[in-house]
Amino acid sequence: MTTADTKQSTSLREQIRKALSSQRQPTVTVLSSLLAVQDSIHYLPDEAIKETANFCGSTTNEVWSVASFYTNFRFTPPGEKTLDICWGPSCHILGAQQILNAVHREIGLTEEGESPDGKVTLKYNTCLGACAQGPCIAIDHHLIGKQTPESAARIVRELRG
Amino acid sequence: MATPFEELQASASKRWTELTTGENAWIRVGGGTSGQAVGADRVFDAFTVAVESSGAKARVSMVSALGLMYLEPMVDVLMPNGTRIYYGNVKPDEVEDIVDRHVKNGRPLLDRAFAYSGGDGSTTGDLQPLESMPMVALQQRIATRNFGDTDPLDLLQYIANGGYAALNRALTEMTPEQIVEEVKAAGLRGRGGAAFPAGLKWSFLAPSTAPVKYVLCNCEEGDPGAFNDKGIIENDPHTLVEGLIINGYATRSTHGYIFIRQGHEIPINAARKAIEAAYEAGLLGKNILGTDFSFEMEVSLTGDSYVAGEETALMEAIEGKRSTPRFKPPFPAAAGLWQKPTNINNVKTLAYVPELVRNGSAWFKSIGTETTSGTAIVCLSGHIKYPGMYEVPMGMTIRDVLEKIGGGVSEGERIKVLQAGGPLNGLLGEDAFDTMIDFDAMSAAGASIGSGGIIVGNETTNVVDLLRTLIAFNQFESCGKCFPCRLGNTHMLEILDRMCQNKARSADLSLLQRVGTSMKAGSLCGHGQLGFNPIASALKYFGAEIDASIAGELELGGVFSDGTMILPSRTRP
Ligand SMILES: Cc1cc2nc3c(=O)[nH]c(=O)nc-3n(C[C@H](O)[C@H](O)[C@H](O)COP(=O)(O)O)c2cc1C
Ligand code: FES
Q: Which residues of chain A have a CB within 8 Å of the CB of B425?
């Protein structure tokens, strides 16, 4: 480990600790702690698992079991923006597959993951909750409805600058 | 001396008078997840800027969504003459014009508006009254009564429209037992899927004298096609908060949790703000409204997991663990959250409670059908002309909802298939469209109101492909605890994938049925027990299409033509 690495991991650790201790709701649990950390640094590095275990008085094993269960958690840094594509049945019958195909072509991916330039993380979502405006996508949780393959591809291009 | 509630009411009515009378116009932009998905936030910003720069005498608010989602972004202008004029599908670049001509010069853009309400009709030309539109007229709005009118984040606007009067009545005039009896007499059945009588459920928890007891509100709402739970929370959070406090009082509980999936920022924020405001106003916390009843409430977020909506899995999630279901018994009323006595209800169930208590059980019972009183809050999406969220009395037929409210599909087309009540429920074909919306009638038709979502598919919809998507969802969302559910769904998905690619084997149908039987028998919770429902219902209504796919003669066209499917790469370990 270089000095820069150590420094970086110290500040990461500090950010994690801050996220853990600034939870405002009365009930603090392993799950609420992991959600707080991911909200703050957007993924769960090894340090997050260890710090959460310390903070909650639980074991890293227990914390892993929770982190690996909920599909919103991720363990590597995401791209600058996260693009969710809805594959729920409502969006599906309105053409979600075509939208995904267009996004895949534009990003150069064939599944979920990060664009090669690290700008966009692509995720699939089971229902974004605005089915009446389908097909839907979301950027960092902000929903955009009434998509077409062309509009979605344009959004990806804009995200990648 | 005025009681604490009378004082709140006085400030509320002052606030409402300020908003709705006087020389300022009130511009209300319908918000919510759906509205914002088509740019309501940008329209709101445009109005704010236009009013400020033009010096028009007007207030601009982001209010709740009326539910007519096909008209979003929707805006209405209440003029000092008492007339409200409604504009649909508003674009930011039209806003200046509306402010200039309508708000400043009193000349509404009649060719752009779709309806009016209130006033003497002198400025509204040929516009139709809002109440005469079938999608409004056919509704009976109880849980959604304030939609389109109030700012969900303003407690005083809720109180000004009758809010918290039921809680005040409950705390000052009724015993907990009386409330439980009222809810029983009203025939209120749970809206989370199982249709269990709410009053009866409350009566299991009420007698326990344990010092800590919990009431939980379930807003996991993982069913694709359903958005009414989040809809209620984001559009009128106080109706839920009030319902949950009354639930707490009726069962002598000490703590309430509103359980929501992470990532849905608008409803999460609304729930948190509503709870905060209720604490500040003395409607939560110690000695509520000056009585001896004390009650605490908070929001609990879950990670992404559909099974977290199952009641015992939900308790695991609030405790911060993996949301897998528990064995029953013990039932939640005996040992629930942290092994304490607990009650769980769906958002809609609780959102009816304030009006039920305010107007009495006889009133509630008079709405709907003999066995299912009250309303259904239907979410229409898919191939339907007027998608949206509509609260209709139980007993309306599915056909009336689709045609009179939803406007049917486009000209010359036919509705072929419905997915009603979420992926653990069924597909319905035309033979079922005359079924009444009522728990018993729907389950006899092999479907369920479930969460209230109705996804509409026109003739181009490939039923086998739609079925595959539902099973893919169930497979992806199995929590993995029971192997018949975990493996059964995977197995069914493989078979459906073969069927969609015209590669099915002749034994596949009986294999599907055997897998379904094992899942039903061998799973702890509804996720596995009900997982075969979509296939069973498809066999009932679309047998010919299933047979064709087994025979390798399925025709895939339109959006289904490439025979592929979206499936997330990540599954639960
Ligand atoms: C897999 C699964 C998921 C469920 N998801 C939800 C849900 O998202 N919301 C809900 O209210 N009930 C859900 N339920 C039903 C709950 O277990 C429970 O019956 C309900 O919350 C009780 O509320 P009610 O009596 O008011 O209907 C689910 C059940 C199962 C088996
Ligand atoms: S199914 Fe896509 S938003 Fe609900």
A: none
Rounded Cα distance between B163 and B161, Å, is: 6
Tell me how close the Cα of A81 comes to any Cα of chain B, in angstroms. Answer: 14
CATH T-level assignment (fold) for domain B463-550: de novo design (two linked rop proteins) (1.20.1440)
**Ligand 1 binding pocket mutation candidate from B230, B316, B346, B489 (most atoms within 8 A of CB):** B346
pTM beyond 0.95: yes
> What are the phi and psi torsion angles at A82 (to 5°)?
-110, 125
User: Ligand 2: residues whose CB is within 6 Å?
Assistant: A 86, 88, 90-91, 127-131, 134, 136; B 224-225
Q: Which pLDDT tens digits describe chain B residue by residue (573 residues)? A: 799 999 999 999 999 999 999 999 999 999 999 999 999 999 999 999 999 999 999 999 999 999 999 999 999 999 999 999 999 999 999 999 999 999 999 999 999 999 999 988 888 999 999 999 999 999 999 999 999 999 999 999 999 999 999 999 999 999 999 999 999 999 999 999 899 999 999 999 999 999 999 999 999 999 999 999 999 999 999 999 999 999 999 999 999 999 999 999 999 999 999 999 999 999 999 999 999 999 999 999 999 999 999 999 999 999 999 999 999 999 999 999 999 999 999 999 999 999 999 999 999 999 999 999 999 999 999 999 999 999 999 999 999 999 999 999 877 789 999 999 999 998 999 999 999 999 999 888 877 888 899 999 999 999 999 999 999 999 999 999 999 999 999 999 999 999 998 999 999 999 999 999 999 999 999 999 999 999 999 999 999 999 999 999 888 777 776 666 677 766 665
In whole angstroms, give the CA distance from residue A87 to residue A85. 6
Both tokens of B427, joined, read 């597909």
Gap from B532 CA to chain A (nearest CA, Å): 17
Domain residue ranges of chain A, discontinuous segments joined by +: 3-69, 81-160
B306-to-A140, B48, B347, B516, B526 alpha-carbon distances in Å: 21, 39, 16, 20, 11
Q: Do A93 and B382 touch (CB under 8 A)?
A: yes
Query: What CATH superfamily classification does B163-364 receive?
Result: NADH-ubiquinone oxidoreductase 51kDa subunit (3.40.50.11540)
Domain A81-160, architecture per CATH: 3-Layer(aba) Sandwich (3.40)
Q: Which residues of B touch A93 (CB under 8 A)?
A: 382-383, 455, 457, 461, 466, 559
Contact B455 A126 (CB under 8 A): no
Domain ranges of chain B: 21-133, 163-364, 375-458, 463-550
> What residues have CB less than 8 Å from B330, skipping those under 6 apart?
none
Residues in chain A closer than 8 A to B383 (CB atoms): 93-94
The alpha-carbon gap from A15 to the nearest alpha carbon of chain B, in Å, equals 20
* Residue that has been written with the tokens 């929001």 in this structure: B299
Atom 12 (ligand 1) nearest CA:
B192
CA–CA dist B341, B343 (Å, integer): 7
Other C-beta atoms within 10 Å of B266: how many? 23
Q: What number is the ipTM of this complex?
A: 0.96
